[in-house]
Amino acid sequence: MKRAIFPGSFDPITLGHYDIIKRSVKLFDEVIVAIGINADKKYMFSLEERLRFIEEAFKDEPKVSVVTYKGLTVDFCQKNNVEFILRGLRNPADFEFEKAIAHTNRDLAPIETVFLLTAASTSYISSSIVRDVIRNNGDYTKLVPKSVRVK
Ligand code: ADP
């Protein structure tokens, strides 16, 4: 049973995340989208909203589940028999950042990090750009799954 975790803040989930998750379903038996809880970070969307956006986006995909977690990703993996950490790569900056995290995680536990290169059509999308568009009343709906709606 190949089980992967896709950790992140998902504030909110974007079409970039959506693309990575959709494609990863072909590689793994189970994909756990895991929203990390960081008490020091300020979020635009509450934990409940972020969870609901992802659950709704994948309601027809039985291999995808959504959880929240605190602490180290590798600890979550070891407690839940997860062998793979999934991450998306958009550009060289992502690669450098992700490389350091992946090496650290490998030092901490025998868990492989698997990288998927973003689709060209969503490579420019980030949650922070989506939040900026929302704050400035722009049309964010082209950048996120249909489940993400601002009241
Ligand atoms: P974090 O706070 O951990 O960076 P994010 O929610 O921003 O959380 O990202 C989670 C994962 O999704 C990371 O691996 C990130 O590189 C990847 N990701 C973010 N945006 C995109 C995108 N447009 N295409 C592909 N992967 C992406």
UniProtKB/TrEMBL annotation:
It is an enzyme of class 2 (transferase). Residues 5-132 form the Cytidyltransferase-like domain. Pathway: Cofactor biosynthesis; coenzyme A biosynthesis; CoA from (R)-pantothenate: step 4/5. One of its GO terms (molecular function) is pantetheine-phosphate adenylyltransferase activity. Its cofactor is Mg(2+). Its EC number is 2.7.7.3. Reversibly transfers an adenylyl group from ATP to 4'-phosphopantetheine, yielding dephospho-CoA (dPCoA) and pyrophosphate. Belongs to the bacterial CoaD family. This is Phosphopantetheine adenylyltransferase. It comes from Ichthyenterobacterium magnum.
